[in-house]
Write the structure tokens for this entry.
Amino acid sequence: MQGTYENVKIIGIFCRYGIQQSVDNNGTFYYRPIVYMRNCKNLNNIDLKLPEYLLFNLTKGFKGLGVLNPGTKLEIHCRRYLKEKRNDGYGYPTNIVIANNRPAFPDDPNVLAGMIMVKNQGNPEAENDPINTDLVEIYKNWLKSKA
């Protein structure tokens, strides 16, 4: 069992950046930037209890999201290392995305057009975009039906 792993999907809340001191094979100290995640859940096995914090190396996947604010919910694909005598370990984060709940785009093209028209109101860059009050009303009615 030692040294085996499984690919899993984790969802958790970004807590903060940190620095971890490590030693290489030559005995030289170096510092690794890391990411602290809290309230993590293993989406492959939701019954599995995870530690209070998970630490991940600050990889290009995290860097690609820009500087994160504490409280940002992230979804991360990673490896769960299966260890015999210690707690399981998590590492090699990939496919990192912001998972804060965001509404899906409407399927109906009229509702979608109305949504875009409403969202662009007051935006000087969109002042030349057409506005159709019927489509705006269709979007507002769609919103009411979702509530």
In short: The beta strands are 4-23, 29-42, 53-57, 73-82, 89-98. The longest strand covers residues 4-23.
